[in-house]
Automatic annotation (TrEMBL):
This is Phage lysin. GO terms for biological process: cell wall macromolecule catabolic process; peptidoglycan catabolic process. The keyword Mitochondrion does not apply. Transmembrane segments: none annotated. It comes from the Bacteria. GO terms for molecular function: lysozyme activity. It comes from Lacticaseibacillus casei DSM 20011 = JCM 1134 = ATCC 393. SUPFAM superfamilies: (Trans)glycosidases.
Length: 440
């Protein structure tokens, strides 16, 4: 998330930063650092080399009626949980002053949320405002009401100047007190802590995004001023080895995946795992010093040898004790490449979703329809029959034009009965399977 015009605050309000010791049972404290991620931070997010306690990941958003799903959302949520961070959600909310566009955005993205109930769902309103302040205000309040009604904590993200120019902010603050996550960067340099001499004074602030370069360029960070990032979570547990185990109030596929990775012992690390180098790591396995830019970053494990793991991209061996697991190899295999081609991996993901035999094959078909892993024959396919039942079309097990049209309607793509090469429908299908939000 990034403001188009970075704000340099002119009002100075000096706040005291409070630090807390971490007992075995802990709550996230006021003053904790919160990261926010979108597709630009990759499948597992970006941690930098300074500590954080919470993450807000983008599920997707609307650009005045064009809707984009973030394919990285689900794995970012699970990565945050695996790393011992509270995970929350935000939606790019470029709705201008249109209630119909706002409604469509809420209808599309609220069912995709993979963070627990009561967790933050923030609306990112920083671009595309209409010339009507009241209409803009009403559209924001409508979205916040929808978030609250869905059982989440409503938060508005924007900048002071943008809100004052384009909304009647006092109305928003009256309807949703202390719901503002404000952005204002005192400097463009890399920082590791907020400078409260540049705090952007404004009513109703719960978080302040103080940099877009938290210990490394391209990493936004905020400070929690009220403890709001505790919402949706119970008390975290810190083990004697320093691992933090978070406890979501409710479970989703993404939080379950994160907890599963968190529960996996480091002795199980093998090729294909995604691991993060701990901030406390000091030396590679060969004894040379680990530079700061390596710490906090995520790497694929290429191979293992005894107590050592070989990290991809930097091709360096580190000790198992100096990494933490963000994703197991089996979880990594379940994340689809979003390329628009329906291959056996997509079919296997559909089979897991529908609860049928998982072999990556669509059997008993008359034609391939540009789908790989199709067996020509008779009798139809159980996974296609299960999809047809959920789509409300004739159940015969054949992937024909009517079934393809129904899939495209459900996925909000062009309603024809054809699957093309690099199909837009398949791209959306892959994104929704990755996000765990397939509508059929």
């Amino acid at each position: 998330m990034k403001l188009k015009n970075k704000l340099i605050a002119s009002v100075v309000a000096i706040l005291a930063a409070i630090s807390f010791a971490l007992p075995t049972q802990v709550r996230a404290a006021k003053g904790d650092v919160v990261l926010d991620w979108s597709v630009y931070q990759g499948n597992y997010g970006k941690y930098g080399n300074a500590p954080s306690k919470a993450v807000i990941a983008q599920v997707g958003g609307t650009y005045n009626g064009l809707y984009v799903v973030q394919s990285t959302y689900r794995t970012q949520v699970s990565s945050a949980i695996a790393a011992g961070n509270h995970a929350h959600t935000y939606i790019w909310y470029q709705v201008g002053g249109s209630i119909p566009v706002a409604k469509a955005a809420m209808d599309k993205f609220l069912p995709m949320v993979q963070t627990p109930k009561r967790s933050i769902v923030a609306l990112d309103y920083e671009a595309g405002a209409s010339g009507n302040k009241q209409a803009n205000t009403d559209a924001i309040i409508y979205g916040l009401q929808r978030v609250k009604a869905a059982g989440y904590t409503p938060v508005l993200y924007s900048g002071k100047y943008y809100l004052n120019e384009h909304t009647h902010y006092s109305q928003i603050n009256k309807a949703f007190p202390t719901s503002l996550w404000i952005a204002s960067y005192p400097t463009t340099r890399t920082v590791t802590a907020p400078n409260f001499n540049y705090f952007p004074s404004m009513d109703g602030i719960n978080m302040w995004q103080f940099t877009d370069a938290y210990s490394t360029p391209g990493l936004d960070a905020s400070v929690d001023l009220t403890g709001i990032t505790d919402n949706g979570y119970g008390r975290s547990t810190t083990t004697d080895t320093g691992k933090v185990i978070v406890k979501p109030d409710t479970k989703t596929p993404a939080t379950n995946a994160g907890q599963s990775a968190n529960d996996t012992h480091k002795s199980s690390i093998s090729a294909g795992y995604a691991v993060k180098v701990n901030l406390s790591a000091k030396r590679y396995a060969n004894g040379t010093a680990i530079p700061n830019w390596v710490k906090g970053r995520t790497y694929k494990v290429i191979q293992t040898s005894g107590n050592k793991v070989l990290l991809g991209s930097i091709m360096s061996w580190v000790n198992r004790s100096d990494v933490e697991i963000l994703q197991t190899a089996s979880q990594a295999r379940s994340v689809l490449t979003v390329d628009g081609y329906w291959g056996r991996e997509v079919t296997a993901a559909l089979q897991r979703h529908e609860g049928t035999t998982v072999d990556g094959i669509i059997s008993g078909q008359i034609r391939t329809n540009n789908v790989r892993g199709v067996q020509i024959g008779r009798g139809g396919s159980r996974v296609i029959a299960a999809m047809q039942h959920n789509l409300g079309v004739r159940v015969d097990g054949y992937l024909g034009p009517q079934t393809i049209k129904a899939m495209k309607r459900a996925l909000d793509t062009k309603h024809d009965g054809v699957i093309s090469n690099r199909s837009r429908m398949v791209i959306v299908l892959q994104e929704r399977l990755n996000a765990g939000t397939l509508p059929f």
